[in-house]
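Weekly structure sync - notes
Attendees: PM, LS, DV (DV joined late)
Agenda: review two folding runs queued last week.

Item 1: First target. Sequence and structure tokens pasted below for the record.
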Amino acid sequence: DLRANGDRKNPALACGAGAAVYVTRSSFFGNQAATGGGLHAACEASLSNATFANNTATVGSGGVHGTAKLGVLQCTFAGNKAPASPAIGSEGPLTLKNTLVAGVAKDVPACTAKVLLASVQNLVEDGSCNATLKGPVSLAASLQSCGVTQTWALLGGSPAVDAGDAGVCSALPVGGVDGCGVARPNGLGCDIGAAEWTGP
């Protein structure tokens, strides 16, 4: 697991052209950079079961900024801020599946992609990146620890509960577990985002 708190000058994690990075069951929170407060990926990047919370960019995208092929599967973005795209900004091909984006700005789209290869069962508050669902997502008030990582828990009645694509949540690299190691699905169906709802 990678829980990163950046130095407020550089992204928590960055990779250069020609490389590749794979991140799973990790959280990026409270980081600040010019672009990509949580992750700046000039390389091919694959993210699964990861949480990006309260990251900030002064120019580009707050949570994740990619310039190469970017895959985002079963991730949660909340409270990220940036003037271009608060949560996700992709200058290259973007694949977005079973991902939840909350706490967006009113004047810019939460998610932008130069090329959107696929958008499957995403819940994005403002509906950007061709999200299947939009509107309030009903998250816990603060990050919660679960094992070695932290994430935003879903509240009962959230539209993300049981709304994920079953094929996405069972296939690798997601592998049938959430960011806390809970088996998916936990209930009638797979949930959207990094954490399955486990409440009563």
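Item 2: Second target, run right after the first with the same settings.
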Amino acid sequence: FRSESKERLRTRISERLRHKNRALLPWDYEHLILDRFPELRMVKCFPNMQSDSDNPTRPGHILIVVVPQPKEQPVVHMMPTVNGLKLREIREFAQSLTSPFTTIEVMNPEYEQVQIRCTVKFAREAMGGQYVTALNEAIEQFLSPWNSDVGYDVRFGWNIRRRSEEHTSELQ
């Protein structure tokens, strides 16, 4: 058993009183799953949706997307996912919290790859290829959401703008 601070105990009890260990709202699913599976970093619940791209709106269905905790040394090119067995465990857990008439689907996020095109002018003394490689690596790390120490933090629905106000000082 892990020790629990008074603040965490108060929060857990308040949440338990709120949802009574049943999932009715997206918030309930998200918090119950995060509490049960500490290896997850983030959970997003989409009510009345399914992963079918032809007809995503489907009453009585719930789509749950899970993001795992990052590993000690995140690899920039590797997009973090949860294995199939864990996805099934999460689905079975979520199904136990809701009506038997509700269809639950749990999946990994769909990562979108972006291509950056820009013009960079290096100082005359920095003309080597190593600076281009270092610049490419810095951009990759900045845009990788699982590497939040450097750039964007993990959250659903974020977009990349030409000039990000939140990271402007880091880009200059």
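Discussion on item 2: Residues 72 and 147 are 10 Å apart (CA to CA).
Action: LS to circulate a short write-up before next sync.
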